[in-house]
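re: ur question from the group chat, yeah i did fold both. here u go
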Amino acid sequence: MSKTIAINAGSSSLKWQLYKMPEEEVLAAGIFERIGLKDSIVTVKYDGKKETAVRDIADHIEAVKILLDNLTSFGIISSYDEISGVGHRVVAGGEIFKESTLIDDEVLAQIEDLSSLAPLHNPANAAGIRAFKEILPDIISVAVFDTAFHSTMPAVAYRYPIPNRFYTDYQVRKYGAHGTSHYYVSREAAKLLGKPIEELKLITAHIGNGVSISAVDGGKSVDTSMGFTPLAGPMMGTRSGDIDPAIIPYLVEKVEGLNSAADVINVLNKESGVVGITEKSSDMRDVEDGIAAGDKNSILAHDIYVDRLKKFIGQYFAVLNGADALIFTAGVGENDTETRRRVVEGLSWFGMTLDPEKNVFGYAGDISTADSKVKVLVIPTDEELVIARDVERLKK
């Protein structure tokens, strides 16, 4: 029996699942939320039990150490020797990594070198890899890249209209992210719709703290909203999404304390988006509490959020020249009924209609009406399963 652990580190979170492979049986799972923030939440589920703790967790390295301690202290494993493989979600693979790969020192160094493409994620991914290598140095370690699924994009989608030399000499292009999620939910959608993936045009909306929308034609990514880095696209929890690039030098010139483009990029990554408008929180649950209380900033934040989602989804109807289904996934996409309602109602011209009895918290599947021309699906993502499968494949 093989036990494989899949690690999915986000900018402020770390999800994990421990699998019995190749049976794909989940032995335990958990999530660290609010990493780097006060009152981080640690949740572990195993054997029908759920353990939750609130503590301050400084970074992803500390989270990995707590994770491994929990596996033994809760009796999920008797020793670390039972784990034969670990797979790590890595956001940016650049033009180097177009498929999952075994991790050695050279690969880890390349992942760190690519941090400029995903400054909130690749450092966290690399830190998690190093933490596991320190504690479990002899097990198979695999990197599964978010950008790999998007390597099928045509040049018309991934090239920017800037001088050719910036691409040829510096590899400035759209790479995308969340590819593992888009890959998984597009294939689950094909099962749900009862059609071969090769015959479907799908728009996949991964809406969590990070947000990306993808156009998937015949199972292949043909366009996606995140760009050279995960900063591009719709408004996100702490990221601005698309803005006029001329704003960057303007802010450097005008705002005290912003002395370089890097300073502004840091603000756009960590202090913008939902938290920038609400001035309180990047969590959509907090935003909706603010809306209920009549907070103007919360109302505006949600209005902008929905507006940007509609615009990106709308453009992918154009890229695909129509679509069979719109898929919502990730934390907000799977759970926030109000955001889904507002987005779909704002795109009703395309022939989408929600069934209000299905657009409820906890429901997964087809949430559209029987006569909806474009189906609307809620599919919980499972990036961890994709990661575990790739670990098993590369162990052979």
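okk and heres the other one u asked abt
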Amino acid sequence: MPVRIPDNLPAADVLESENIFVMSESRAAMQDIRPMKVLILNLMPNKIETETQLLRLLSNTPLQVDIDLLRIHDKESKHTPLDHLNTFYRDFDEVRERNFDGLIITGAPLGKLDFEEVTYWDHIKEVIDWSQTHVTSVLFLCWAAHAGLFHLYGLKREILNNKCSGVFEHTRVKAHIPLLRGFDDVFYAPHSRYAQMNVAELKAHPQLQVLAESTEAGAYLVISKDHRNLFVTGHPEYRKGTLRDEYFRDLAAGIAPQIPKNYFRNDDPNAEPVARWFGHGNLLISNWLNYYVYQLTPYDLSDLSAKTPWEQANTKVLTGHR
């Protein structure tokens, strides 16, 4: 099934050239189907690239997904045309009275900056708090995962001496979890960040579960026990060349970055990167959208309760019925 996107969104041409099924709003309006309503809060500078990466993953399921794009402020962007933002993005005031099946909050290039020093931190907190009563399930990616764990559960991140950049081996910590259905015991995922969560603190927290971790990159998948919040500390959405582009960008900026680990053939930055995460990246998003959104969300979104959907309908997930 397709992902439904606004008419004329630039990502459509890219996705269609890759034989990915997308559907315009005008075409979807002719179908009598209740699509999943997913809101994407895009904090990345190059919003068009991030949109395309996430839409690739969201389109790889049997579900029709209706996408709304959200921006945190209306300031001019150096990396995204203003007319694109004004055409395709909503301000929070436009959605605060609505309910959504899913919310994705992307990473942000904020490096080692303390959360309280981020100029739009109050806005981030407002969206996170709103999501706990207006969204069936929230997916936090990379920086957003650390921000969500800090704001919702008071857990602080640890700033690293060197950037965690590369493709790392991960293992499942938990078995028989719907999110991990189809996962291998060992799988790979890309990371690109300057901070890390303390795994012991995550495992000790009474409201959280660590589902997958890496000896090099730490915790990768963490979920709240009420199943409303999923924290992914890496980047399952990254395309093959994203880490390469980041490496050469930082090199040109004089940052002297380390070569991303387990990424280039023979660790040679001039060689072709090796993509080893596409399968599990797609499976992760597919499982999230199916088991934690579609299987739990009410048909009428106005019926969304402050009580967690998992508590209301966990038997539906276990049996596979909606």
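fwiw on the second one: The CA atoms of residues 1 and 62 lie 5 Å apart. Residues 278-294 form the longest helix (17 residues). idk if thats what u expected
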